[in-house]
Design brief:
Layout (H helix, E strand, L loop, with lengths): L1 H38 L10 H5 L1 H23 L4 H33 L7 H25 L5 H37 L4 H28 L3
């Protein structure tokens, strides 16, 4: 009876944290779109305007890599379905996140080519490339180990905690990359418009809170 009550308490807390994560995730996307569409040049990967091409990068890194990754992590614990369905949702959302993240990185490289700028010369770019590389390794390892069960049950049990911990670390690396990217862009633009500067700051805080609430939700869901 005590155990069931304790699980119910954790379930309620995890559910509320999941709602908070959804809220800050959606808020960060809305704020980012307002910034890119209202204050900047808009978004168009195939545009001759290099800045419109570049704007695809922050949008897809937040909407694609960060938001879908967080949703994938929460889906594995919060979707009311069988374990196989949860695994499928978890892997599928992560795959979408990876594909969108790759397109977002391609947009940054395309912008650099259009502007004849040097690639990979900032802390932001280093963190970003390391993050997407680890993300690919994590997804491939998880797919072959857990999805198609390429390892024995005992091996999967031993590896699972490392897989979960690695996923949480990669999410925070993606969040760190996004925050350094926003700071770098704001510095480069020398933002003097008070509203725009505050909008960028609120967007960054929303992204950070999304990552925090995803991690808290996943942590508490472990006890359900």
């Amino acid at each position: 009876m005590y155990i069931e009550t304790d699980r119910s308490r954790y379930y309620g807390s995890a559910s509320r944290l999941t709602l908070a994560a959804h809220f800050f995730g959606i808020l960060s996307i809305v704020l980012l779109l307002v910034w890119l569409l209202h204050y900047r040049e808009g978004l168009d990967y195939y545009s001759s305007n290099a800045f419109r091409v570049f704007n695809i990068h922050p949008f897809l890194m937040v909407f694609g890599l960060i938001f879908f990754s967080g949703e994938a992590m929460m889906a594995y614990k919060t979707v009311a379905a069988g374990r196989d369905v949860q695994k499928f949702m978890h892997m599928s959302l992560h795959l979408i996140a990876f594909v969108l993240g790759v397109v977002g990185i391609c947009a940054a490289f395309k912008f650099h080519n259009m502007q004849q700028l040097e690639d990979m010369n900032s802390l932001h770019s280093w963190i970003g490339i390391i993050t997407i590389s680890l993300f690919a390794l994590q997804w491939g390892f998880g797919f072959f180990t857990f999805m198609i069960r390429g390892a024995s049950m005992g091996t999967r049990i031993r590896i699972a905690p490392w897989h979960v911990t690695g996923g949480r670390a990669i999410l925070f690396m993606a969040v760190c990359s996004a925050l350094t990217g926003l700071m770098q862009k704001a510095t480069f633009l020398q933002l003097k418009h008070e509203r725009e500067a505050r909008l960028v700051n609120f967007t960054a805080v929303s992204i950070l809170l999304f990552g925090i609430f995803v991690d808290l939700s996943v942590s508490l869901a472990h006890y359900m």
